[in-house]
Amino acid sequence: MSYDPPPPSYPYRPPDSSPSYYTYPWVPQQEPEPAGRRPQRHAALGHHSDLRVLRSAYRWQRRVATLTALGYFVLFLILSAFAPSFMTSTVTDGLPTGLLLALVQVPVTWLAIVLYEQTARRRVDPIADRIRKQAELDARREATR
Length: 145
Fold this sequence. Notes:
The chain is mainly alpha-helical. The protein is 59% helix and 3% strand. The chain has 4 helices and 2 strands, in the order ααββαα. It has a two-stranded antiparallel sheet with strand order 1-2. The longest helix has 40 residues, at 105-144.
């Protein structure tokens, strides 16, 4: 009795076979890339370092506005909880400090909105415009190829 090795667990493929040997006839074949095409000089937009800069600028913008509005509100809550004598003291005839600080919350919210818009104009919008222009240039270059 002779020993026969077990058959391989994968199907046999001829050494000179093309990828079409393994595909179905209705699957579209990938066309080879033309030989005369120039390599791309610029990195793809998804891998661009400006996108990271834009994300960090937008993050800074959100933090400034959020900390302005929420910081004041948290300060108001802490004063209400831990300094009730200060909050009930009167500023003018019959106007308690707590009510005055509560009314100041509306202008502080407006200030947060103004800071949000200001940081957008100063930090975020120029970066976004630069990325948009670069994307338009890349699209034009691709269209001319």
